[in-house]
Design goal:
The chain has 349 residues and is of the alpha/beta class. The protein has eight helices and 15 strands. The chain has an eight-stranded mixed beta sheet with strand order 8-11-10-9-12-13-15-14, with helices on both faces. It has a three-stranded antiparallel beta sheet with strand order 5-6-7, with no helix packed on it.
């Protein structure tokens, strides 16, 4: 069973070397936002390329993104849910509230900090042991160190850093700004909080399989003065069974995540299902191609690593594009810097 885990990997801090640029990648994202300044992203041509932004003239665009906030659905039958208790959409609504499916009559309870929207939610005797990678990121010490050193090491693999990654992805997200966004495999909510504070989305759902990661996100939010808690939800869910109605989501972001999923195809297929026509999927990951393809039996080695770790490890650019296409997404684009890649694909209108 595929599970959602935090946005990192056992191998994420040890990728060596420069992989070079791909002919099929775009390093020129579209201008960004609505009622904010437009950003033009640039990549410096050096061995440590990174994203820079500079403001230009204000840009006003027509936004057809959905503004519906009632997006949570039963992960078993995908039917609408009835709120019981505090029905306001905020990080505080999970305390003392529950959601009930009118079709299968299952109730999903708020856990104080988040809603547990897994299929096995509420079971008393049944329990599942997930893959080693999944269980690793459910440990309390991992949620504690994720933003206190772990994520910072991603720079050695070519990741520009959270703020610059966000500026870069704005160009890809321009058609759906003003709509809702799901931060899948959110970890401790690093990007979820950036999305919420940007004011560019009507609803932000921070989603992860790890209870401790979600609790850490909750603590970070509580510690931050003037954080916009309205229209911000924490949800525990499985990437293979997303608790959203079909065609109800404007944007799904999966930062440094797809290489952690036991079955990327199942995860991307679910993302394709929940995206509305014209909705955007944007993700980042480590990429394995270029010189790595010259290593004898490299593909077999990756398959063995997958079996041991319980995750899919790293894909090549061609594999990511082929995966998106196979799951019904089009207009694949990407930006690369050494081992880092940001990619995007769209649900056909």
């Amino acid at each position: 069973m595929a599970t959602i885990v935090s946005s990192s990997s056992f191998f994420s801090v040890s990728l060596p070397g420069r992989l070079g640029n791909s002919r099929r990648c775009s390093v020129k994202p579209n201008p960004s936002p609505i009622f904010i300044r437009k950003f033009v992203a640039k990549i410096r041509a050096s061995s440590t390329a990174f994203v820079e932004t500079k403001p230009s003239e204000p840009s006003f665009v027509d936004n057809e993104a959905s503004t519906s906030k009632n997006v949570l659905a039963c992960p078993i039958c995908y039917k609408p849910l009835t709120w019981i208790g505090d029905s306001s959409l905020s990080i505080e609504s999970a305390a003392g509230s529950s959601l009930q499916c009118n079709t299968c009559k299952k109730t999903y309870s708020g856990m104080g900090t988040h809603f547990d929207m897994t299929a096995a939610s509420g079971s008393k005797d049944y329990g599942e042991f997930m893959s080693p990678a999944t269980e690793f990121f459910r440990m309390p010490f991992m949620s504690f160190i994720y933003e206190r050193g772990w994520r910072q090491n991603f720079v050695w693999g070519g990741f520009p850093g959270p703020e610059k990654e966000f500026e870069l992805m704005k160009g890809y997200l321009k058609p759906v700004l003003g709509g809702n966004i799901i931060d899948a495999s959110c970890g401790s909510g690093l990007f979820s909080r950036i999305f919420a504070k940007s004011g560019l989305f009507s609803l932000v759902v921070a989603l992860d399989y790890s209870e401790n990661m979600l609790k850490q996100c909750y603590e970070f939010v509580q510690q931050e003065a003037n954080f916009p808690k309205e229209n911000f939800l924490l949800v525990r869910a499985d990437i293979s069974r997303l608790p959203f109605a079909s065609s109800s989501i404007d944007t799904v972001h999966a930062g440094a995540a797809i290489h952690c999923w036991p079955s990327p195809s199942t995860g991307v297929a679910e993302i394709s299902r929940v995206l509305r026509p014209g909705g955007v999927f944007v993700g980042t990951t480590y990429i394995v191609d270029g010189p790595f393809n010259l290593i004898p039996f490299s593909r077999l080695l990756r398959q063995n690593m997958m079996q041991i770790s319980g995750s899919y490890t790293f894909l090549s650019e061609r594999e990511i594009e082929d995966l998106c296409r196979a799951c019904g997404l089009v207009d694949f684009k990407c930006t690369r810097n050494r081992g880092f890649v940001m990619f995007t694909a769209t649900k056909p209108s």
